[in-house]
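Attaching the record inline, Q. Sequence:
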Amino acid sequence: MNSERSDGEVRRAVRTGVAITSLIGLGTGIYSYFDALFVAREAGTIGRTAYLVPLFGDGLILLSSTALYAAARAGARRPGWATAGLIIGIAVTVAMNVAAGVAHSWADALVDALAPIVFLIALEVLIYLFRLGRGGQVPDRPAQCPHGVPSNVDEAVRLDWEHRKDCLGEKPSYVQHGARWGVDRRRVPELVGAALNGSVPDA
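Structure, as predicted:
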């Protein structure tokens, strides 16, 4: 009963996070777009080309955020290029916003710089929620890791598999786990057999 209530609370938190982040993203995206458009025109970019310039930073943020969101939903490790792309996109957007604000006043520049920073914080909170709930589902995990110290390599392969599955909530595959320990993937099912609990991961 407590587990079901916890699952429901996490699902509601994730849905709330999605809604709030979407609103923040829409607001800051529109704000940043017109700031970047102003800078592009001030720099001498004319015609329809000026409307493309704001998409550089915001487009990179959107693309990178999508990849990070997908990784969080799948419980996978953060993609390095997506993380770098998000940082670069935020940096470009902050620079554009500050440049637009400075044209009016330093106070305006400060306000303009806050828009992408607020969006980044909201995104990090959302990704945390998805990593916590794995898309709204909280796996049953022990309060304390029960796995001890292995006495040999074969036992280490098994304990690591159990630790990743039970404590970290991951879904390791034979290929990944074999590569991690330098073991032929065909031997992995034999070594971790007791930890499978009847489930068969991707080969």
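Residues 43 and 50 are 10 Å apart (CA to CA). The helical segments are 2-42, 55-74, 80-102, 106-133, 153-167, 174-181, 188-191, 193-196.

More tomorrow.
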